[in-house]
Amino acid sequence: MRTATLEAVRIQRQVVDYALRRRSLLADVYAGRVAVSEVCDANPYLLRAAKFHGRGSDVTCPICRKEQLTLVSWVYGDGLGPVAGSARTPEELIRLAETREEFSVHVVEVCRSCSWNHLVQSYVLGHAPAPTRRRTGARRTAAE
To answer: Looking at residue 102, what DSSP letter applies?
Structure first.
């Protein structure tokens, strides 16, 4: 599994990290400006995806501090067909990246105890789409 994860890191493009947004939200929760119930609202589908498709992390839940967070990778893209909008394991992401055109991956951290969830990263995987050829007519010269 470690090899698959390292391979995924090498092929990720357009990476967006949401750490600052997470830090700001947690500061608001700790200060009482945002209720815990507003951030611990993972739906059952996300919790199920965390159980079956997630991968463990070394980060302890910032809300309940009871367990390590689980990272769930969701895939989106026109070329994915019925796979679009589903959770995928790191190994499945590698296979998709090798066989499909560009698609986006959204990584969500989830606490299976208190239902904390937050988007932590997004990136693009897959083959870049082939460039479309522009129609070229007869070339004109400056004298025309």
So the answer is: -
Cα 39 from Cα 23, distance rounded (Å): 13
Distance CA 144, CA 129 (A): 37
Length of the chain in terms of residues written: 144
Distance CA 112, CA 43 (A): 11
Radius of gyration from C-alpha coordinates of the chain: 20
Which residues make Cβ contacts (< 8 Å) with residue 25, sequence separation at least 6? Answer: 34, 39, 118
Mean pLDDT to the nearest integer, 23-45: 96
State pLDDT tens for residues 106-139. Answer: 999 999 999 999 999 999 998 877 676 666 655 6
